[in-house]
Amino acid sequence: MKTIALTSNSLLSIFEQLQEQLGGKLQIKSNEFKLEIDNEIGRGLISGICIEKAICYIEYEINFTENVSIIYHHDNAYSIHFGYCSNGCLIQSFGEDGKKSKLNQFQTGIYSNSSKKNTFFSFSKNQQINVSMISVDTLFVNNSELKEQLKNTFLKNKESNQLCYIGSLNLRIAEKINSLNTINQKGIVRNLLINSNIYLILALEIEQHKYDLTKVENSFISLSQSDMKIVNRISEYIKMNPEIQYSLKYLCKKFGVSSFKLQEGFKIMHNRTVTDFIRNIRVEVAENLIRTSELNISEIVYTVGLTSRSYFSKIFKEKYNCSPKHYQNHQNKIGITG
Q1: Going by C-beta distance under 8 Å and a sequence separation of 6 or more, which residues neighbour residue 179?
Q2: Does the model's pTM come out above 0.85?
Q3: Cα separations (Å) of 197 from 144, 149, 194, 236?
Q4: Phi/psi at 330 (nearest 5 deg)?
Q5: Are residues 168 and 299 in the same domain?
Q6: Which of 180, 195, 214 is where one domain is finished?
Q7: Which domain range does residue 260 map to?
Q8: pLDDT in tens, 201-216
Q9: Which distant-in-sequence residues (6+ apart) come within 8 Å of 36 by Cβ?
Q10: What number of other Cβ atoms are within 10 A of residue 1's Cβ?
């Protein structure tokens, strides 16, 4: 077991300590940090960004060759950690011998620790781990409404309370993390997109906690992790093949899932029905084709699996507040004047 000790709230200090104890190449650009590791300890990337004094984001995309525990030594009774596991699992405990909680794939974990015990996050060897952690220091949160909500929800007894909450399965957060990792813009646009995505991930994790508390008796609790993985596969399949004429019967038969679990899974993961999800994907693919291809509107309609141009115009306008033709003309003007 390799133990990594982190003793600071400063993201710069955290990454310097990670590099000192794990090795690797550290890149710092503006307020973004990337530690690339390729040695006897493991292979992968640890990245982070500080979006304001109170909020920082760290993502672990790594495969360790030995069991690794990261220990947070700093004593801050006002900090809350919002974790999310996209792949693999993460083990958490307060103190080395404390009760262990397991954060599985697609689950949110919320942790705060006001005791003298350190917080342990443990990674198993030879397992690809994708875990993100948003740390919020409520003392320095600028938004007073957010500060009060966080303190009243997660820090009710800051003198003695330890909070470890493991949420139900949620794929929407994984999608937003993926969106965050695919941002390729630069400068102020990049900063704005990164900040908005991290705030949205944080909002979804808080929403998940609230939803779980109020809906604990709902049937979605019966959906297993394997069920959600199937729904995730179906979602990706639809994204890659928007042109197919889908039906619930077709999807259930192809992926071996019941209609109930399919509908419930999409409701949990995407907050949409299957039909709404397919329609939204087609509109988004079409919007991308309008911007990046030379196809005309009719060709795009058929490319995304629709047959009615008028219906396509209707759903496109509902999402983007203008007709496809107007949108295309505006893109052409940008191309001419750019």
Answers
A1: 197
A2: no
A3: 20, 20, 5, 20
A4: -65, -40
A5: no
A6: 214
A7: 221-337
A8: 998 888 888 877 776 5
A9: 24, 25, 27, 45
A10: 9
Condensed to tens digits (0 to 9), the pLDDT of residues 72-117 reads 876 667 788 999 999 999 999 988 888 899 998 888 899 987 667 7
Q: Yes or no: say if 173 and 135 are a contact pair by the CB < 8 Å rule.
A: no
> Domain check: are 231 and 207 in the same one?
no
- For the stretch 149-177, pLDDT in tens is 888 888 765 555 678 888 877 778 888 88
Kindly give, in sequence order, each residue whose CB lies less than 8 Å from that of residue 74, ignoring residues fewer than 6 positions away.
6, 7, 8, 9
Question: Residue 3: what pLDDT?
Answer: 92
Strands (E), the chain: 2-6, 25-29, 32-38, 42-52, 55-64, 68-72, 79-87, 90-94, 101-103, 107-113, 119-123, 128-137, 162-169
Question: Of 214, 247, 267, which one is at a domain's C-terminal end?
Answer: 214
Query: Tokens 């060709």 — which residue?
Result: 299
Q: What is the DSSP letter of 42?
A: E
Calculate the alpha carbon distances from 129 to 44, 245, 308 in Å.
9, 36, 44
Q: Which pLDDT value is given to residue 282?
A: 95
